[in-house]
Inverse folding.
């Protein structure tokens, strides 16, 4: 990679506006006199899929792709995306991450552990690599300003602190590229992002709907006729009907509480009971999508 | 959400239906809809005819009338006219409602009396031992069509739309979430609502036609689904069940929905 | 439970009305609030009067798609707590058999009026007949009792219809009112009462959670709450236990069928009604019912004028058959002449009740023409000749 070129990554989830944000970054860098290349991947761009954009700039840039461990800044629009892409950041580089979480459908495949699979928010996660970590709540800031959809400009404002170009270029790029009529609010959001306070990571709390372990399967053997529908529909293979037609629980630990067996039992013979101990999870792990 | 079993006469369980018969799934979906709508248990009357599906009426803790073959819509008409405060639900089968009771069904639809009819279509006469029904597909084996059915079958929903039913839907027993939602809509609908549930008969239809048992029949019906307006279609649960070749598709979802005057008896005239 | 009530539609004291109209007035006075029917000659006037009156007093009229549905709707409405009825004639009555049996088995009170016309099949639609007497008793499958009442005048149609409703409610049973085309269509000047005695079905006193719908003494009638009034229960035409739930238990099924019969047979004094005329010194008794009973009365008077000691026994209750009353007459007379507008239906029952204690002769006719006093008088003269 040519001397003097630097890299930046933007990552988020389909629907968040990652692509527009990366266009603004690229435009601002060009206005500041850099050679800029940008490349994006947005395979699941409808909703919920991972979307990321590489940007490189400098006197001369050949490839748009940022090599692993070389980026100056990672701008993560969603917490799991920060964790996913952080290895692209050089030691001592910066991570700007929104603490909003969007749990992707893929993380629900195993309904028992999706909360464990989704990474807990931890501002000290990257300390060992001496990364400058800024955790912000851009949605809250944008909402305070009057338009939740300006959240991305808040993130860009924070990112701008780690990129050495003049604010006039940023503001010109924003004014040029955001949807007509939203220039004012986005510029306000950008300026707010430059001074935004570190977001407070909420304490872990009990989630009444959470899962902490296997559900209990109760079978009414006097009602069960051994038809086998339950064992055939169980995604976790918890149930089996033996040669005598008796329904047995072969893997009690595997039940995720999806209730397919209960709902599809024609004989009302199965009851699924949630674990008695409630799961302890962060209140921030909701499915709310940010703007 | 209440445990739907609280709507059952638990002392009467287990029910008489065969292993793998989806009618019980349909019943559960219906009870879930009742629970979601928070209907008054004392104000629900289930009226049934004769056949496997009609036996369901015996197991629900409502006022229940297990009538005569095909006549449930007529019993229900009298009951609803006498007691407009009741939610009157007819549970019937394809032979019950479309063969012997076809006349009663279409006239109840024509009047637009405010009842809900759940027609559990298993494509065969189950209780009498697997004879061909008006819904048995052409070519299908039944005990009275050993070389394959040579009669065309009814499309119950088209029939009912033609007869004037103001709410007509078709759902699959394999899609219980769909079923619950459509049943709730049907219960809420002012006027005659007709819901055909594609159910199964593993014991006769499945065995004679080599479709398989309950699980295979649920797959078989779901691959026939050509949902037109059904809101949900979660078929993931059957993915690992081997399925036979897909038979012709069926339109599912709410197929017809209109509001028109509800029948409540003949109007007043001056005293004679 | 009997209560004297003022009918909601006041009964004009003296009026000229048709038999079918008297039936409607009787039904409404007895508390009937639901009519489900299907048009058929010669009963249609009942429906046509019902539809004009019922909606004004909180009742419901519905014209159903056939007679099967008509009686089904009547049973449904009755379970909803409304006193209910239908009316028909022979062909429709054949279709109603299914639900007469159902109402008997499930013990749902209802009244079925059959205005008889000539049969078999569609037969003679506008002509009278008494051809449905046995169908009324045995038309449906299986063993169950039935109450059948046969009025012989317009005024009696009123009283019999009130009684039909009262018996239906009292014993939770279908009750059939059987008259013929002549009575249905004849207009007579009648005097109706200002009040009528009305019976309502017994209500349970149990806690709804402990309620078993079919609990009754071996000769008793269980209470019947209406659907929707807080008692949740099952009604089925299958053999059922005291909970109302289907059973194949032979003992339970036997007990049920036995009770269905005993609840009627143990209360014959409330049900059986027999009218007699000039029997005290009679050598010959005419047995006639319905419209023939009226001809018979005239024939008796003419025969008396001719010096023949003849009297009349006219059952108003055809079923349960008044065997005791017929046997009592048989012990006092030489001959019983049975006159009916069919080819021999109740005559067999008379022979059975008489048990050889008198000679039984029949004047049987099924040509659509009424039995007149004149022809009946000839039969009396013939019977007198045979007797001597």
């Amino acid at each position: 990679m040519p001397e003097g070129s630097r890299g930046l990554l933007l990552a988020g989830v389909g629907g968040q506006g990652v692509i527009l944000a990366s266009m603004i970054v690229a435009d601002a860098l060009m206005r500041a006199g850099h050679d800029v290349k940008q490349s994006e991947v947005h395979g699941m761009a409808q909703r919920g899929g991972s979307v990321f954009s590489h940007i490189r700039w400098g006197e001369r840039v050949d490839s748009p792709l940022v090599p692993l461990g070389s980026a100056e800044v990672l701008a993560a629009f969603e917490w799991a995306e920060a964790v996913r892409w952080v290895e692209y950041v050089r030691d001592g580089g910066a991570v700007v991450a929104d603490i909003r979480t969007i749990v992707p459908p893929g993380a629900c495949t195993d309904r028992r552990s999706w909360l464990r699979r989704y990474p807990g928010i931890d501002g000290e996660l990257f300390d060992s690599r001496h990364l400058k970590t800024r955790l912000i709540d851009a949605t809250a800031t944008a909402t305070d300003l009057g338009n939740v959809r300006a959240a991305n400009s808040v993130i860009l404002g924070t990112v701008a602190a780690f990129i050495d170009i003049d604010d006039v270029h940023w503001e010109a790029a924003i004014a040029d590229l955001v949807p007509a009529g939203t220039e004012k609010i986005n510029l306000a959001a950008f300026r707010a992002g430059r001074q935004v306070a570190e977001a407070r990571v909420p304490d872990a709390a009990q989630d009444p709907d959470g899962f902490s372990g296997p559900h209990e399967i109760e079978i009414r053997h006097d009602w069960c006729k051994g038809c086998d529908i339950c064992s055939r529909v169980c995604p976790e293979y918890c149930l089996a009907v033996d040669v005598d037609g008796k329904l047995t629980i072969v893997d009690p630990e595997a039940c995720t509480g999806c209730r397919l067996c209960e709902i599809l039992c024609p004989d009302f013979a199965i009851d699924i009971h949630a674990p008695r101990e409630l799961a302890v999870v962060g209140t921030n792990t909701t499915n709310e999508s940010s703007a | 959400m209440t445990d739907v079993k609280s709507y059952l006469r638990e002392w009467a369980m287990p029910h008489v239906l065969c292993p793998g018969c989806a009618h019980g799934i349909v019943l559960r979906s219906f009870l879930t809809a009742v629970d979601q709508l928070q209907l008054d248990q004392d104000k629900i009357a289930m009226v049934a005819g004769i056949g496997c599906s009609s036996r369901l009426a015996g197991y629900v803790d409502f006022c229940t009338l297990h009538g005569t073959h095909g006549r449930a819509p007529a019993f229900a008409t009298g009951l609803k006219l006498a007691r407009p405060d009741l939610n009157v639900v007819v549970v019937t089968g394809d032979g019950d409602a479309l063969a012997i009771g076809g006349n009663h069904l279409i006239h109840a639809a024509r009047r637009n009396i405010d009842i809900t009819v759940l027609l559990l279509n298993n494509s065969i006469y189950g209780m009498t031992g697997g004879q061909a029904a008006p819904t048995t597909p052409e070519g299908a084996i039944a005990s009275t069509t050993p070389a394959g059915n040579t009669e065309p079958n009814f499309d119950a929903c088209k029939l009912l739309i033609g007869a004037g039913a103001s709410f007509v839907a078709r759902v699959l027993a394999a899609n219980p979430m769909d079923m619950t939602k459509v049943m709730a809509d049907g219960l809420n609908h002012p006027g005659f609502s007709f819901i055909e549930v594609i159910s199964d008969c593993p014991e006769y239809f499945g065995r004679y036609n080599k479709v398989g048992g309950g699980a295979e029949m649920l797959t078989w019906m779901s691959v026939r689904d050509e949902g037109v307006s059904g809101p949900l279609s979660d078929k993931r649960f059957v993915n690992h069940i081997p399925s036979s070749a897909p038979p012709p598709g069926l339109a599912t979802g709410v197929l017809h929905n209109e509001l028109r005057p509800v029948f409540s008896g003949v109007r007043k005239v001056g005293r004679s | 439970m009997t209560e004297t009530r003022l009918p909601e539609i006041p009964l004009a004291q003296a009026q000229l009305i048709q038999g079918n109209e008297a039936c409607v007035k009787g039904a409404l006075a007895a508390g009937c609030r639901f009519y489900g029917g299907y048009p058929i000659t010669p009963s249609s006037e009942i429906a046509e009067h019902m539809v004009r009156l019922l909606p004004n007093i909180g009742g419901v009229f519905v014209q159903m798609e056939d007679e099967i549905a008509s009686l089904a709707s009547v049973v449904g409405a009755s379970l909803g707590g409304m006193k209910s009825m239908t009316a028909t004639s022979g062909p429709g009555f054949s279709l109603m058999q299914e639900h007469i049996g159902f109402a008997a088995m499930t013990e749902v009170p209802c009244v079925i009026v059959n205005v008889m016309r000539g049969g078999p099949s569609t037969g003679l639609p506008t002509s009278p007949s008494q051809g449905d007497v046995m169908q009324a008793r045995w038309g449906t499958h299986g063993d169950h009792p039935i109450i059948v009442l046969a009025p012989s005048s317009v005024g009696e149609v009123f009283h019999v219809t009130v009684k039909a409703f009262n018996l239906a409610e009292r014993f939770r049973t279908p009750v059939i009112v059987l008259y013929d085309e002549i009575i249905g269509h004849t207009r007579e000047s009648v005097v109706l009462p200002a009040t009528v005695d009305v019976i309502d079905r017994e209500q349970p006193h149990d806690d709804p959670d402990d309620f078993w719908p079919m609990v009754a003494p071996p000769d008793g009638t269980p209470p019947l709450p209406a659907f929707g009034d807080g008692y949740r229960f099952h009604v089925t035409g299958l053999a059922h236990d005291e909970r109302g739930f289907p059973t194949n238990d032979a003992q339970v099924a036997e007990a049920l069928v036995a009770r269905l019969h005993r609840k009627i047979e143990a209360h014959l004094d409330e049900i059986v009604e027999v009218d007699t005329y000039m029997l005290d010194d009679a050598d010959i008794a005419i047995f006639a019912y319905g419209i023939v009973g009226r001809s018979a009365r005239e024939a008796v008077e003419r025969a008396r004028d001719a010096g023949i000691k003849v009297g009349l026994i006219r059952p108003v209750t055809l079923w349960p058959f008044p065997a005791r009353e017929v046997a009592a007459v048989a012990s006092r007379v030489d001959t019983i002449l049975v006159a009916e507008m069919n080819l021999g239906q109740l005559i067999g029952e008379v022979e059975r009740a008489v048990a050889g204690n008198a000679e039984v002769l029949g004047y049987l006719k099924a040509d659509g023409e009424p039995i007149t006093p004149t022809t009946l008088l000839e039969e009396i003269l013939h019977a007198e000749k045979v007797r001597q």
The mean pLDDT of chain C is 96. The radius of gyration of chain C is 21 Å. Chain C is about 40% helix and 20% strand.
